[in-house]
């Protein structure tokens, strides 16, 4: 049920964004129990004129390697599960792709289950 948007500055490696997406999906699967095959992602790379961020907001030092991840998902997970997700994503990006922990920005958007249609004009999760 999550829809993931990953935004990064343009990279020379054409596989970089996809590898980030794979790690984010694995983290969602392990940390918040996203089912197998429930993987919908939009990966976008931007030039320096279209990727704007504050390099020191909240005292966190960010670089051009910033990864912005927005996950829209059904509401209902505990704060503990969300914290585990943030930690799992940041640590896996750091370990596998050498992304600094400070350069992992995550935003969760929670919606009611009836706000999803996965096709056929049907609200599959509406009760």
From TrEMBL:
InterPro entries (alphabetical): Tauto_MSAD (IPR037479), Tautomerase/MIF_sf (IPR014347)
SUPFAM superfamilies: Tautomerase/MIF
Taxonomy, superkingdom: Bacteria
UniProt name for this protein: Tautomerase family protein
One Pfam family per UniProt: Tautomerase_2
Organismal lineage: Bacteria, Pseudomonadati, Pseudomonadota, Gammaproteobacteria, Pseudomonadales
